Amino acid sequence: xxxxxxxxxxxxxxxxxxxxxxxxxxxxxxxxxxxxxxxxxxxxxxxxxxxxxxxxxxxxxxxxxxxxxxxxxxxxxxxxxxxxxxxxxxxxxxxxxxxxxxxxxxxxxxxxxxxxxxxxxxxxxxxxxxxxxxxxxxxxxxxxxxxxxxxxxxxxxxxxxxxxxxxxxxxxxxxxxxxxxxxxxxxxxxxxxxxxxxxxxxxxxxxxxxxxxxxxxxxxxxxxxxxxxxxxxxxxxxxxxxxxxxxxxxxxxxxxxxxxxxxx
Length: 264
Known about the structure:
single chain, alpha/beta, Rossmann fold, 2 domains, 6-stranded mixed sheet, 4-stranded antiparallel sheet, 35% helix, globular
């Protein structure tokens, strides 16, 4: 579903601020893969998602999605096949629009927009059904302005918007990092539910080693713009945080001193 070959990205080339953000990234995701991606600050995790989605252009390398090369396409053209949830709950929704209006916009992703506007009875029935899956009672508040929702409710709504039109690839960029522990667990449970029930291909960036181990079928670790670890199957299931720390030190040649990664 996703094939990345020889991907490199340098920020501020030729200046004193030059930084190699991605170095020779080679990554293949099969349909239905649920991959967790972990690494310290500056490892290149969010940059990788930004390059995949078209926010940044790579300096070299190629990106194919479902057999189609997309690295030459602008961000809005790639958005038709991608769903993305950001770390900040405020980024994924329009605060001054109603819940149902936000969902109506999400339902139009990848379609031509006309001058007509409105939420049809058929749309409302679909939105009511999908909102009920969140188990947050939002299905009875569809006319509520999104700015009235809590951070967790907004993030759950953003997740629903991202998968409303089944994406070929779902990108989750530390989407629970800004939430309290109880709400983060709820959003992660919803993520697992949608990914499993809809058989989505997903790449999830997380700062938490335990979450990286417990969720998904494959785990990738990055350091200084490179992929240094890629485990899946039984090896991933049997991993412990302690073993993951040891692997990081062995593969990267440096000691992991990031409490946020180890403790969450």
